Amino acid sequence: MILTITMNTSVDITYTVDDFRNGHTNRVKNVVKTAGGKGLNVSRVLHQVQAEVCASGLIGGTTGDYIQNSLDSQNLKHCFYQINQESRNNISIICGKEQTVILEAGPTVEIEEQQQFIEMFKNLLNEIDTVVLSGSLPRGIKSNFYSRLIAIAIDQEKQVLLDTSGEALEESISAPIKPTLIKPNEHELSDLLKEPIDPKNLCELKNKLSSQRFYRIPWIVVSLGADGALVKHGEEYYHAEVPTIEVMNAIGSGDSVIAGLAFAIDQKESPIDIIKRGMAYGVLNALEEKPGYLKINEFGKIFDQIRVHQI
To answer: Active-site residue among 12, 163, 255, 266?
Structure first.
């Protein structure tokens, strides 16, 4: 079973408007509300492909109730720790091909609540094989929190995929016990390296991933948007190319990539198929209007169009 962790859950509200104008009244053509947070997007994708998955993390208040009720309506297994403050709302405004995103900071989590969650996490590990840690950390939680969870899970011989950024990512790759996989995009990698990178220069990227700081991380998947991804697996490097598509909604595509990678790693697929499944899920999400959903009937065709070259 795969366990997804979302420490900063939300209700994601997507507004579609014909002509968005700052400082004016905007009429909303369509509203979609989704139980959100990166880990919940991962959970939905895994549930769609009939993987065994359990969603966990922190929730609170009436927003937290909405999240649980939404997951119940989808028959998606979950086990959250209830905190005293209200979970957040996130808003995306879609106008044509442009997206404006408004993110709330979320609740402040008390030390005792954090410790109680860790105890629950330890118990959940008894039933699972693979852990996905996704998204930002709410206020009150130190940036080394993910590295603590990683150490606990790796000690129990679990696979751990980490999809976060900033100090939380920095702490996790600097800690003695490393995650199984990280998935920075080009901007997050640039922040880690403290220098600009050229996503078109694969040889330069390959050299940067050879840095000592990435030593002992089995999988590094650098998202390059429409250019696919550069992947480091052990001592091997690959470029994954994706087909050109008409994008319906790119929100959640990164989470779908993580879902595909987690599914394939959990099922012990070959390295090439792990890469192809991850990239295919990202493309399939971009073909759907709702984030965290796949146009699953297109899977075989898209999977066959993913090209993976060793470099």
So the answer is: 255
